[in-house]
Amino acid sequence: MILSNVGIQAVLDSGTLIIDPEPVPRQPAPGIDCPYQTSAVDPRLAGEIAWLKPDLPIAFDLRRGGLARLFTEETTERHLLLEGEPYVLEPGHLILGKTLERIELPITDTGS
Q: How many domains are contained in the chain?
């Protein structure tokens, strides 16, 4: 399901989606970047990213989850992001980045 920016804000209000701290402003304002796009919200990337070291004998199945557990000191290379320094993600590469926001989809009882 794809939600509009208004839909994203509605599920934030209902508690179905939690982003803490919540991105602001909700509406564009002069001189302030609005993190809400037509059908997305832009979290802020923290100052470090990591990727798996090349040629490791690792296989993972995204359907099983737990991908973050593969990113250990022994299996990854880390890169500090500096203010104003872009990082180019090449096609076919995977990185793990932290956001400054905590994003949660609470499990709710649907009654079925």
A: 2
